[in-house]
Design goal:
alpha+beta; 48% helix
Length: 121
């Protein structure tokens, strides 16, 4: 994964959007076949990187006329893209599960957008 950015696809308040339970935000994900080794990173280091990235992106996205939920979804997608560029995330020498990392990323996003939440199914 080399990039991700948000795009609005349907407005919830439009009649068609209301009937289809539309979401305002989708993601463009860009990936390319890579030859290089992916890095292993400690959670504390990744958390610091994500805090800086999310602060910048939150400011940018908040300048749009988007709902808080859509801003939160976009921030989550951007953060997940960053995590996908890594081989693994560790804490205290132990590899964290993907689910654990995603939960922690969601918590970081919630610090910026309290209305954001993810559902686990």
């Amino acid at each position: 994964m080399v990039a991700a950015w948000e795009m609005q696809i349907e407005r919830k308040h439009r009649p068609r959007g209301m009937r289809s339970d539309a979401v305002n935000t989708s993601f463009v994900l860009v990936a390319k076949k890579g030859e290089r080794c992916k890095e292993v990173v400690e959670w504390n280091s990744l958390e610091f990187q994500l805090e800086k990235l999310l602060a910048i992106e939150h400011e940018r996205l908040s300048s749009h006329d988007w709902s808080a939920e859509d801003v939160g979804r976009s921030l989550f997608g951007i953060a997940v893209c960053r995590c996908a560029q890594l081989s693994s995330v560790c804490e205290g020498g132990m590899q964290l599960s993907t689910l654990n990392v995603l939960r922690r990323v969601a918590e970081r996003v919630q610090a910026f957008v309290p209305e954001f939440h993810i559902e686990e199914r």
